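Predict the 3D structure for this chain.
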Amino acid sequence: MLPALYFQQMGEYSGFLNHSEHRIMYRNKTYPSAAHLWEAMKYLDRRPDLAEMIRMCADFGELFQLTSSEAFRKEERRDWAKVFLKVLEDVVLRKFRQHPDLRSLLLGTGHAPLVYSDTRDGYWGDGPMGSGTNHLGKVLQVVRDRLRNEREPHA
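Done. Predicted structure below.
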């Protein structure tokens, strides 16, 4: 098995994070980050006004404060708990397609397991003592495979 590639908030692979400042175009609108688009996806169909408020957030802190509010949480799409990881895969794939430098960096990781190293985040990262679920790393691996399959000719 290949050694894992660990990435963090800072450093060469910080662009892998959903809140990195890599703009994303979706439905002819620009979102400041993948995190903005992913959060907006909770509301785009039923409450486009809330999705637009998310899109206009200046930074991740403002975005988190807004989407953590009770007013927003009660309006999110009903199936979000079932679809949020798949939606994230699609958003992250869009991000890496739109930023060739990031795509090259991700593809350059080969087949190594990707681990978001964050001792405070046991869901998206490896969590305390490496016991987390590392969902961000897993999403990135799926996106990397999808990008690789787009590049390689199919037999």
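The chain has a mean pLDDT of 93.
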